[in-house]
Amino acid sequence: MVSRVIPVKTFDLVIFGGTGDLARRKILPGLYRRYIAGQIPEGSRIIGAARADLNDEGFRALATQAIEEFIPAKARDAATVARFVEHMHYVSVDATGTGGWKELAKLVRKDVVQAFYFSVAPALFGALAERLHSNKIANEQSRIVVEKPFGRDLESAQALNATLAEHFDESQIYRIDHYLGKETVQNLMAVRFANILFEPLWNGRHVDHVQITVAEIVGVGGRGAYYDKSGAMRDMVQNHMMQLLCLIAMEAPYKFDPDAVRDEKLKVIRALEPVKPEEIVRGQYRANRDGKSYVEDSENPASLTESYIAMKVHVANWRWAGTPFYLRTGKKLRARTSEIAVVFKEVPHSIFGDSEAWHENVLAIRLQPNEGMTLSVMIKEPGPGGMRLTEVPLDMSFADALGDSGADIPDAYERLIMDVIRGNQTLFMRGDEVEAAWAWTDPIIDGWEARGDRPKPYDPGSSGPEDALMLLHRDGRRWRELKE
Ligand code: NAP
User: Fold this and answer.
1) Would you call 240 a catalytic residue per the annotation?
2) Atom 43 of ligand 1 has which residue's CA nearest to it?
3) Is the CB of residue 342 less than 8 Å from the CB of residue 208?
4) Ligand 1 within 6 A of 95 CB?
5) How many angstroms does the Cα of residue 21 sit away from the middle of ligand 1?
6) Catalytic entry in 167, 209, 240, 314
7) On the CB side of 289, how many CA atoms lie within 13 Å of its CA?
8) Does the beta carbon of 17 lie inside 6 Å of ligand 1?
């Protein structure tokens, strides 16, 4: 197999919030893995920036500790970590003040790729953008990376887009949705658009329905106060699940180019029909002997925020008319699993008569755990005894299929950071996409807030509220089993 990795130019990457949780868990370990892969050119700099009073040594120690905590021992060695952290610097900067900006301006070079990662609260994005300009640090080639959440409704997302646009062109703004950095999500595009096999069947005539599931076993404990202002709709559906839906439903872009791909995704979002209240089930986990209820975790006894949501979504265009997309996501469910399942229709006529073993074909795309794809097909059960049918999965798991190159799948963050350095926006959300997604979710949220809808209680460790099962039962369908 010939693999061609696109080279990276020397860069200065400033991580605002370089001492925070996201930097420690994802960004710094991710950069280390890219360093081992030979993708961080010598001479590149990683500059931590936060208010804490640290120096280069202190930041290197923090990065070393983060790598030791989040990279398995077999994938690191002390000498390489020491060489890697040599690339690190630190400037104490206050996003909303004047301190540190002159030092930062001296450190960031003009003649290399410049990227500024805003790994801080979104309330600080505007201040950072403004100061990068007023201190003449950023230029027309600089890139900024912004984290989720991107707004909490259409109005706030528009305001944020407008603030960033005062200082940066859209081509410089990289809005992260880390789901787009997952190997399987990109492979979904490869499977769809690099094979002739699926396209003739990829429509409402042959696809019965699509299920998109993102299930977690953990509750909101620890970040309950933040989550309570958000809920499953804002935290998961408006961004991650919407992006997955787009990649399944979109037309073939004319080429694999950032705007061509994002134009097609935008058309899908615009084609989404408003969702009827009876086609949404909101849930909230209650207490059991193993743990607290949602209202205890969020410390808001009157909370009406959903920790679970299931919904039936229609994409109103020629390709998908009549094919529902069922989305569900929740906390404290039976299993930690993220999956897209494309469930095909039954054969028009069975020449084998009725068979208990008979199942429709399903293309299942697993995002976690064990990223991979399975296509279930019917075959004859081997051996004598007549024509008995059985379902077998054609497993396309990367680790097995690709040998060593597939076993070490890069984390979404490391891939996305390298795409920023390369200047490739394909896997980042464009401003109009984010706004269109909020324009679709806002009326749904406004509706349940105006009605004062109470989420349905569900047991921790279950598959969610009973009503969510009914959402599919009514249509003669059922959810795929939640299992790891
Ligand atoms: P965090 O742990 O609270 O870290 C915040 C960082 O920002 C710290 O380094 C903090 O350092 C710095 N900071 C705060 N105020 C500042 C100021 N005025 N000027 C300069 N630096 C300042 O937050 P986080 O979890 O890393 O999250 C960062 C961003 O990523 C947020 O937008 C969050 O929504 C997003 N995100 C996080 C995760 C995650 O898993 N953590 C996942 C998805 C998205 P000082 O206090 O020293 O200044």
Assistant:
1) yes
2) 148
3) no
4) yes
5) 7
6) 240
7) 0
8) yes
Q: What angle do CA 141, 6, 71 make, to 5 degrees?
A: 95
Contact between 283 and 307 under an 8 Å Cβ cutoff? The reply is yes
Quote the crossing angle between the two packed helices 28-36 and 78-85, to the nearest 10°: 110
Calpha distance 209→85 (Å, rounded) = 49
For ligand 1, pick from 27, 101, 119 the residue to mutate: most ligand atoms within 8 Å of CB: 119
pTM of the entire structure?
0.94
Mutation test residue for ligand 1: of 26, 28, 51, the one with most atoms within 8 Å of CB: 51
**Cα–Cα distance between 430 and 122 in angstroms, integer?**
17
Are the C-beta atoms of 450 and 286 separated by less than 8 Å? no
In residues, how long is the chain?
484
Tell me if 134 sits within 8 A of 97, measured CB to CB.
no
For ligand 1, whether the C-beta of 15 sits within 6 Å is: no
* Beta-sheet pairing, 207-215 with 337-344: antiparallel
pLDDT tens-place values along the chain, 484 residues long: 445 677 789 999 999 999 999 999 999 999 999 999 999 999 999 999 999 999 999 999 999 999 999 999 998 999 999 999 999 999 999 999 999 999 999 999 999 999 999 999 999 999 999 999 999 999 999 999 999 999 999 999 999 999 999 999 999 999 999 999 988 888 899 999 999 999 999 999 999 999 999 999 999 987 888 999 999 999 999 999 999 999 999 999 999 999 999 999 999 999 999 999 999 999 999 998 778 999 999 999 999 999 999 999 999 999 999 999 999 999 999 999 999 999 999 998 888 877 777 789 999 999 888 788 999 999 888 888 788 888 898 987 655 555 544 445 668 899 999 999 999 999 999 999 999 999 999 999 999 999 999 999 999 999 999 999 999 999 999 999 998 8
Print burial letters for 174-188: b (CB count within 10 Å at least 16), e (below 16): bbbbbbbbbbbbbbb
